[in-house]
Amino acid sequence: MDAERASGYRYGNRAYLVQLRRAGAGTWLIDPIAVPDLAPLQEAIGDTEWILHAATQDLPCLAEVGMRPAALFDTELGGRLAGLPRVGLSAVVEHYLGLSLAKEHSAVDWSTRPLPEPWLRYAALDVEVLAEVRDRLAADLAQQGKAELAAQEFDALTRFTGPPQRTDPWRRTSGMHRLRDRRALARVRELWQTRDDIARERDLAPGRVLPDALIVQLAASDPRTGEDLTALSSSGGVSQRGRRRPAHRSLARYQRQWLEAVRRADQLPQAQLPPSALRSDAPPPPRAWADREPVAAARLAVVRERLTEVSEQQQIPVENLLTPDSLRRVLWTPPDPADEGDSVPR
To answer: So which domain of life are we looking at (predicted)?
Structure first.
């Protein structure tokens, strides 16, 4: 199974094409826009194992159309556990089958209708050979003694619902680090939310409404009038062919919304301005541990060395043994041995 999204073109990550292949039934390409409820297909599949590549990318959008796996095999994660040097779909297929997958349509707008036939052929190829790859990869995992480990990891993925919601997602605006003033940060926040509202309403990727660079530029320049926006657009808004870039056209099209967003930020009381940075419950950067907590730094050095040894012995990347964030948290504030009923080295 596979799904194609229109990332970079449309708002959100909904599926615009679902590809299925099953032995004895062939390959099917389904349009979830025309058929938005695939629950009957889910019922027909039942408990049959899904084979996906990089499952976390597709599971949320498949759940939106009523499809959730009872069991799955992830060829990307399986490749990591098997110690493959590269785990992209093309690399895994080439490793096991000696075939090269064409990738010329990987970044196209899958919300296009009708979908061109070459795109459909390209999409079908992504599932044509997955079952054979799965069987050869499963054999490798079994030969390496990792079949049970992989099964547990795949089972955990059946309960994956998506990445955690971020606090203040506007803080991920690219280039915002150049703004030091809290008032300017408030403008970024208001402009980001305004852009998100427009993008959701028009079903466009936010960056196609207004790129991050222009949000930062608006926040820094504090425009007050339409003339200010026109000057900003004129300063860098003409392409080499003499046409305005779409993003700069949106400055004029949504002039009122941008100016209102800036005005709201400028009228906020000082106490309501966003802090320069969010407080984090994460440990400090490891480079600071030696000065702040030498015992924790010693723990980290020992555990990193042992994890590296296990990683090399098992041919599994360190991050698949234990995520860096989990490692730092448990070593900075280890569990109390009395609570755990066991001895924990400190």
So the answer is: Bacteria
Contact between 277 and 176 under an 8 Å Cβ cutoff? The reply is no
- Is 236's pLDDT higher than 60? no
Picking from 278, 262, 270, the residue whose alpha carbon sits closest to that of residue 187 is 262
- Which tens digit of pLDDT belongs to each residue from 105-153? 888 999 999 999 999 999 999 999 999 999 999 999 999 999 999 999 9
CA 302 to CA 331: how far, in whole Å?
10
C-beta of residue 61 within 8 angstroms of C-beta of residue 85: no
Would you list the DSSP string of 127-170? HHTHHHHHHHHHHHHHHTT-HHHHHHHHHHHTT---SPPPSSGG
Name the strand (E) or helix (H) holding 46. none
The closest of 110, 14, 11, 123 to 66, measured between CA atoms, is: 14
Yes or no: domain 171-272 corresponds to CATH 2.60.40.2470: no
| Per-residue tokens: 342 | 């066991």
| Structural contact between residues 244 and 238, judged by C-beta atoms closer than 8 angstroms | yes
d(CA 312, CA 310): 5
Phi, psi of 91 (to 5 degrees): -65, -40
Q: Sign of torsion, CA 135 141 144 147?
A: negative
* Nearest to 122, CA basis, from 107, 100, 103, 95: 103
Coil vs helix vs strand at 19: strand
pLDDT digits (tens, 9 = 90+) for 252-267: 899 999 999 999 999 9
Using CA atoms, how far apart are residues 130 and 338, in angstroms rounded to an integer?
49
In the predicted model, is pLDDT for residue 316 greater than 80? yes
Helices (H), 203-239: 206-209, 212-221, 226-236
Domain with CATH 1.10.150.80 in the chain: 171-272
Length of the chain counted residue by residue: 346
Residues 6 or more apart whose CB falls under 8 angstroms from that of 340 comprise none
Structural class in CATH, domain 2-157 = alpha beta
Residues 300 and 293 sit within 8 Å (Cβ to Cβ): no
Output the pTM of the full model.
0.86
> Would you say 5 and 15 are in contact if contact means Cβ atoms under 8 Å apart?
yes
Residue 321 identity: L
